[in-house]
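BUG: 3D viewer hangs when loading the predicted structure for this chain

Environment: internal workstation, default settings.
Expected: structure renders.
Actual: progress bar stalls at 90%.

Input used:
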Amino acid sequence: MQRYNSAWRTLQLVVLVLAACAASGCGYNRIQQQDEAVKAAWSEVVNQYQRRADLVPNLVRTVQGFAAQEQKVLLGVTQARARVGSIQVTPEVLNDPQAFQKFEAAQGQLTQALKSLIAVSENYPQLKSDQNFQDLQAQLEGTENRIAVARHRYIEAVQQYNVLIRSFPSNLTAMVFKYPLKPNFTVQDESAIARPPTVDFGTGGAAPTGATQ
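Structure tokens produced before the viewer hung:
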């Protein structure tokens, strides 16, 4: 009896979807387009975070050469990078809010660890004047800006996708074809993501605009 009721509900849902399609289009193609847009935006976020992670070993080695006694800070950065690297980043993360939250938390921890590392450099004039450190710092600042831009684009793509699959009649299509809502990054200041991102680690480690962690 339970199986019959389930089949009947599914049939009713299919009928509703077909009726909606006949009336104004089911939105399946738009869902596909928005889903692909989210995946593309996510790939760029992952690429920029990986770019940052790749800078960490050289940055740590450079700082260690001038400030080996800062073991706590250096270890914190190394461990934060290891946590980021331990997370399997696949498109399936976009359909798993818990996995997405774990990814965001790990990246946030690395952000804070890097801020601490850059802050430490202020106490070592020789380190600050080292050309290799300056180059790495400039690369890190540029990468933080690119991360902020990539996150902004992902946030917008997910907002458009989620609105679409919650709107009638495309919500019925999403139910039938099992398109779930996608998790998004946390934005404390919604208006901030509309402004160009800025990073200045050298003057106190200001967070990139629109990139709350």
